[in-house]
Amino acid sequence: MPTSKGMRYLKAAKDALAYVKKQVPDGPANQPKQLLSLNPDNWIRQLRAMGNLSRTRDKIDQDTESQFVASTDALRSARVWAEAARKKHGGNCGELSALAFEYLRLQGVRPLDWAHFIKHDHAFVIIGRPAGEKVNNPPDAWFYDVVICDPWYDRAGFWSGMLADYPTTDTATNVHYNPTPDNLPVWENIK
Fold this sequence. Notes:
The chain is α+β, with helices and mostly antiparallel strands.
């Protein structure tokens, strides 16, 4: 049973979905079934989404290079992906989940994971998983507050109720973000 903390995470996830939808109104570009639809509006939206994705990916490439973002720096990558998706209004699961992740991060929601599946290509956000915690069987109490935020599917819900679609054994984390005043990095200039 979720606690009030879990309910706050769920509201934050829904807010993030609304934000992503506002920033990328045509939706993901990799939904070719839209082109098979008999509705011309779906064709137009899908073709626009494909063009937006192309411009988004070009911006990601340019910004990654100009900002010297290493491929192993997932937090900075998420920021670059999110900014490109916001500016160019395009993306698929990676870009949309990065946009949700960055929105939640800037709203002060902690802890956050920018996550993906191990066995197939799909990215999403996990809200509320403590660092290093694995889901035990039976699950620990913290698990019932953890929320999945998946902008590609436009879904937000408690992970405990979505295990068929988000199995804990098939989930890996790109970034776990949970800075606290006690463990913030300290930067100093070296002359």
